[in-house]
User: Which sequence fits this backbone?
């Protein structure tokens, strides 16, 4: 069985592809664009926190001063 990292490399998916998929799925479930972006943002934050806590702190400090959609 292939782990998720191996699958991503095989399919050449990017983190952007994952965020788009998460946002689309959240929109399907919530039918609310603002909630979908909030869910995608939380997913991105968790991914970044797992890989690089310092980068997550920086990205979300910048995001606090600018709205990213």
Assistant:
């Amino acid at each position: 069985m292939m782990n998720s990292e191996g699958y991503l490399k095989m399919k050449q998916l990017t983190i952007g592809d994952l965020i788009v998929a998460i946002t689309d799925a959240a929109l399907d479930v919530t039918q609310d664009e603002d909630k979908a972006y909030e869910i995608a943002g939380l997913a991105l934050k968790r991914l970044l926190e797992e890989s690089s806590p310092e980068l997550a702190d920086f990205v979300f400090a910048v995001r606090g001063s600018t709205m990213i959609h």
In short: The mean pLDDT is 77. The chain has one domain: 4-65. The CA atoms of residues 7 and 13 lie 9 Å apart.
